[in-house]
Fold this sequence. Notes:
The protein is an alpha/beta fold. It has helices at about 5-30, 45-50, 100-110, 130-140, 160-170, 190-205, 210-225, and strands at about 30-35, 70-75, 80-85, 115-120, 145-150, 180. The longest helix is centred in the N-terminal third of the chain and has 27 residues, at about 5-30.
Amino acid sequence: LGTGDLLDIVIKKIDENTVYHKERDELENNGIKVCIIGKPNVGKSSLLNAILGYERVIVSPTPHTTREPQNTELTYKEEKITLIDTAGISKQGRKAIGLEKHGIFKTLSILDRSDIALLVLDISEPITHQDAKLVQEIFDRQKSLVFIANKWDKIDGRDTKKWTQIIYDKLPFATWAPIQFISAKSGEKVNKILDLIIKISNQRKLILSDSQCDKFMKAVVKIHRPAKGKGTRAPHIYEFRQTKNNPPSF
Length: 250
């Protein structure tokens, strides 16, 4: 009794599993998709040129020179990486008109399809509310974030510890995100960005076993027990499991 219904359930699970693995394989085959994002004129196109070592895109001091996202595929340490240079997002945001508005829409659309966002900051200028809004756009889409502090050559003293603290003080909700200080103009430290991209991509694909999750949860509960709320005893957590990766969810 009920074996027909059981068979239907089994077939459904097999189909779901096949689709999941197909989607995962397609994602991995497409390589690492990296979106270069930031306000106008912070050096996004210059950064892409510095990474590649040649003039791939137009570089201009005039804001909104990059109208359309431009894809560049490369292989680094046997990893396929797609770098996407995007139009700068101005503080007018959705109020922008014409080509500018089209570029902003394209930028956010590309961010949706990326794995990692390189948020380029002009470190010689104050961090603004618009920078914080861009961080929020990245967070909302569950993308990995790297701060690229560009124009480092303009800073006197160049104390990375001091400037790291300045950035984190302005963006206290993103203190876990790594910062790479670079000069796209001179090429200084640009070579470290690709290694950072691969490292973060590997972290996004992390898969923890059930036993590793259990061990982690027990360690956390020892440090801080679940809040009692209105009850007399602390709640008991029975299970902590990973549900997917890239990015990991639990």
